[in-house]
Queue: 2 jobs
Job 1
Amino acid sequence: MELSDRKKKILRAVIDNYIETAEPVGSKAIASGLGLSSATIRNEMAELKTMGYLEQPHTSAGRVPTPIGYRVYVNELMERHRMSVAETETINSGLRARMKQLDSLISDAGRLVSTLTSYPAYSMSSRSQKLTAKRFELVHVDDLTFIAVVILSDNTVKNRLIRLMSPLDENDLKRYSMLFNNSFTDKTEDMITPQLVMAAERVTGDENGVIMTVAGFLIEVLSDVQQTFVTGTSHLLSHPEFQDVDKARRVMNYLSDSGEMMKLPVPDQGKNVKITIGPENLAEELKDSSVVVAKYNVDENMQGLIGVVGPTRMDYSKVAAWLAYVANALGFMLSRNDTQFPGIGGRTDNDSIDNKED
Amino acid sequence: MELSDRKKKILRAVIDNYIETAEPVGSKAIASGLGLSSATIRNEMAELKTMGYLEQPHTSAGRVPTPIGYRVYVNELMERHRMSVAETETINSGLRARMKQLDSLISDAGRLVSTLTSYPAYSMSSRSQKLTAKRFELVHVDDLTFIAVVILSDNTVKNRLIRLMSPLDENDLKRYSMLFNNSFTDKTEDMITPQLVMAAERVTGDENGVIMTVAGFLIEVLSDVQQTFVTGTSHLLSHPEFQDVDKARRVMNYLSDSGEMMKLPVPDQGKNVKITIGPENLAEELKDSSVVVAKYNVDENMQGLIGVVGPTRMDYSKVAAWLAYVANALGFMLSRNDTQFPGIGGRTDNDSIDNKED
DNA sequence: TTTAGCACTCTCCTCTTCTGAGTGCCAACC
DNA sequence: GGTTGGCACTCAGAAGAGGAGAGTGCTAAA
């Protein structure tokens, strides 16, 4: 059951119009734009309705796209959004202004996307287990306290304040510091065995449990495989489809409850962007929202997602383009280990968008 | 115009009841509890109404407390909430579970409070200018890149990835590192003058701008006087007074827009907790919400606030007690520089609550 | 001073009516 | 045969009317 060219045009006009107005669109509204009479449009619309692409809130209302309609729109009908210079500049300046520490890059990017799109954004990164420590510093605070600073192989920095039972002077700390730099760097989480820790303890005659404690901290940060951030949930409230508080709350709670993040969509192999529409979402709470998510690759061992959640009536084209751009920039910054992002003027088209559902 | 004992009892009963049910309370509802007939209560209520402590949504509805009524309640009527063992244990375990790095202590505390109270929470800390650097580490990434790690006098750790124009080897980096540890530690922001930077540049013959860049980064973190975090705004939606999306959105936007934080209340000199009710709030957006905020002191040079925002119908007593407890713990952890919090079992009463409005 | 009683008020619910946007379908037209 | 104007029809939503019930204010009696 293939759509005629005219049907496609009409479907597209309906969706474009609906995205803009959030009101069911009547035949008159689009008749002028297509050079056809409203009666003709009505006939076509009726067929589109029986084919499942459009629906009516009630008999004598205008038409509203169904998720299937959106799907077709996203897959073949919508104009690829070509980003304007102003848009890229907005994003670039946002990136420059916010991205300061690698550690917070991922959450900052989410914040930026949420501000730009006016939808809630989520961002997460995950890595296969291969993170290692690259450098340790143990910084003296007082004789019972020091800070363990560890610089990881991805150039993020973690620290923990550690208190001891019995005192330790700065020289002791230097010794431990050297020990860690010698024995615990370049080791993945599973290489930090009790044997290794015990061996180190034997060498230093550690009575304070310093090694145990720091090693514990190290294992903790190395195994921290995944980070998730959600921002801007309150943006939902400004969209007419979330005027129902209960509906809004369900989605917002779902997003805040980051344990549930697992059910959010992920672009398929070889694709960078995925759009899931309404019931295509696995999570019950998102069955009448849409998700647009972009993937960024840092290296073979780390990748991440950045996405937004919004009503099914979403400007898919623009959101997808923006997300792809930000994801690209993020991958660039993370793999170069560089928070300076010069802008990637040339590549503003989003050719690799994966907008097929499966 | 002093309230009779009986009027106080009635006012208290009305407010207690209203806090619980969120419905206007009628005379019958509280008559039984006070051993008086509903008619008597009605007469008293009518007077409380003319006195401004109660109001009616409409002529034949029950009574609802006015902000002035809440004020009296908070100042003299409400029972001081004595925290149960279970409650302190809930908080303590929350503290233990989340508070891991000093850097994130403040935001983590906000998150905890929001979860505990089911209200949006905000937390902020500010210090007078006296922060200094305590230790520098410049960590080699590649010849064009290094990470500047600086440990500050409050034992938080900041880092920044820095790229250079021309290469620098590990030995150079060590030299710079020493230089910074010699010349830039224990200096407040205003002591880092262009002269100082230039002098340092002269010593090392720095052509890479390393000193300039790191000094800039240092000034940036030292002058980062204030941090603000808001979490859990979506909790608002579960309260009946925020079923109106517009109302909820106004408050949520206000809170997300952290630039506006300045208008949030602060406990008065010598007091630890402040409660502002409805129109007592300076911010227009909060004129019909209430804020409970607790102060914590770390040392003479740093203090912070942690507070929640909710409907005027709030369980002031409980919220104030919890906030005071968390603030206390936070001050304790920050001044001992210790993220281990053993629990402060003894001091569970909140004697120093400042519930007077001015 | 307290209480019982009663008329009264006002919200909320339901039911009805009305209006207008938009449809579906038919007959005429190109 | 596809396209169009015309017209009867439908239905949501607004506006209005009536009824029920909760709770009041006031008065008169205890």
Job 2
Amino acid sequence: MNLTVNGQKEELQKRLTRFEKQCRGKGLRVTQQRRKIFCTVAQSCEHPSAEKVFQAVRRELPNVSLDTVYRTLASLEEMDLLMRVGLSSKARFDGDLRPHCHFVCTRCGEVYDIFPQAGEELLSLPSAAKEMGEVKQVHLQLRGICKKCQERK
Amino acid sequence: MNLTVNGQKEELQKRLTRFEKQCRGKGLRVTQQRRKIFCTVAQSCEHPSAEKVFQAVRRELPNVSLDTVYRTLASLEEMDLLMRVGLSSKARFDGDLRPHCHFVCTRCGEVYDIFPQAGEELLSLPSAAKEMGEVKQVHLQLRGICKKCQERK
DNA sequence: TACTTTATTAGGAATTATTATTAATAATAT
DNA sequence: ATATTATTAATAATAATTCCTAATAAAGTA
């Protein structure tokens, strides 16, 4: 894990400040565990898994439990302090390979298709993409709260 | 599950034809199980989970096993006959909320950041997006084979 | 500072999702 | 029709995540 985010200390500081503000705003206690778990993800460029976060946090808090890590990561995601790569829970499949994107409801987990209008361009690939490897698929996912969930609450 | 894809029978037929061609091309046997599993996903607009596919297939092939469904879905994905929404395996987290996208290597699972160049616009949201609900995050994922994996065979 | 309240946590058990194993089955070529 | 060999069913095993409960500790209050 890197100790700085792309070599930018200020960015890390900004994230930590935001974290504390958000917690206090929501009335969440800033516990050692919560702070350390957030720090671990905020400092890393490696998109760590829950297990990796657990291992890293355990070096300083040897008794931290894996459940705490999962619980905290979920609540940090809820507060928009970090994001989850891919989707949680089980895999879902799509037989439609035409260019379109998915609206994923973060509350109920439902996945909706969004097709671009005729003539509407979905996206242009960032130029740095080709340096990473061979791009075979593009997945564009919009996350938010779906209409149904907005209505029922 | 819908029996037609957005009301277009031709699209479904196209997918089935492609499926058979791909299987024969790769020397894979077109078994009842394989065909029914593919059909189930190809006919559906609901991005079914492996479990859902299993339930649907079992109505016609009562003895199909869950393992077969998982195995077949994975091979269909490999053949680019369907795609997986989100990521398989474990969840991974990112503390960087600045606009950027991820290159996900489908071979080794590694996740790399790609930041747009200065002035480069990542994407414009499809106009249909706002009808789905409130978009809170945009996740752009490029999938392919990373440089490292390309080199080591 | 000590006390109280209540969210949070550790530890372990339970659940869910996915993958591996192996003998039996069935699709294709002959 | 038969042989060959990929594929499958059934079940066990593993991996990932979540639940449960008593113990702990953060933040407010006296």
